[in-house]
User: Fold this.
Amino acid sequence: MTPVQAPTTTTAAWSRPAERIMAAINRDPLTAPHALRNDAVLAFLVAGFSAVLALMVDDGRRPDALGWALLLVSHVPLVWRRRRPVLVLVAVITCVFPYHFLDYPHTAATQAAYVALYTVAVTGRPLRTVLVGIGVITMAVGVLFTISAQEALGLLKASGWVVAVLFCGVDVRFYRQYVASIVERAERAERTREEEARRRVAEERLRIARDLHDLLAHSITLIGVQTSVAAHVLSADPERLDRETVAKALDDIAETCRSARGELRTTLEVLREHGSPDARGPLPGLDGLPDLVEAARLAGARVEQTVRIRRAPPAVGAAAYRIVQEALTNAVRHAGPEPAVRVELDERQGALHLTVSDGGTGPAPGGTPGFGLVGMRERARSVGGTLDAGPRAGGGFEVTAVLPLTTTGEKAG
Assistant:
């Protein structure tokens, strides 16, 4: 197994730095995190490299104290290169020109200028980049021409490096704009799909509402007519009561009710998920909690249950049952292998306090959130309660709900 896994590990080790480099290239330099700290590190590294070049190359006289001061100070403005790129370039040139004029090693002082030029190109418009490039080359050649015509001619020949740095910056800028446009189009397409889905759901709900309205309106109208017929037969001639007519009217009413109830049930079943456990049968309640706990244990969870309440209104019991069911399902899915889960239900101050907590790892960061938490909050809100869910301070995840034991309808009664 070792010879097979080693290449995979090596590939992953190489892929992580590559991903970081691509992320740095794709990221907008003006909004990148820790920009000041990263630029300070970059300025320090470039200054060290320039110092090594100053000691190794011999295209000028050996730097003295003034030369070292000018060389190192020219790298200090690079710390703020993203905030004020043009001003940083001017500050670097202000230090570099005296350095060149005093005939110190010329190659050592070009590194800071290249970084400043690249920053101007990658953060500004192409027109500004072209104007800055022309200005820098003209000024550099002019300054060196006052020192030595041969040095000025050599710099003019080497100005291709300046053009290459500027083109590299412009190319990276266009690449970032291209990546940003792709991301924006993807996000816009995703929003469009979500809006289209919501629109279709709204249209379907409107269609179902119209169907239910037509169904109930038609059935109630028939029941009203048939009831009027029965009432008329009973009151028109009590001495000669037509029992068959009255019985037929009542049978028609019952048949209309059965037909409306069947059609209504069929319409509502279409709205439910196929195979949903609550499609049939009575509402689940607190007496179904042991079955939920046992199912979670069979799935590998170590569940501890504490229930200090015996009875609750049917709606509250059903809401508590569904909340515990969804919380246990999430714990089994996301809390890791064999999670330790604690379920607590007790009655305090006229309300059912429910807590489901686990000590697992929780959902994976960056994952797509589902509708479980939304459904639990809707369950709690349906009975006038509240629900909170989130990571615990000591690790794991916790769901807490407070459900009033006296519903609005019972208060009114």
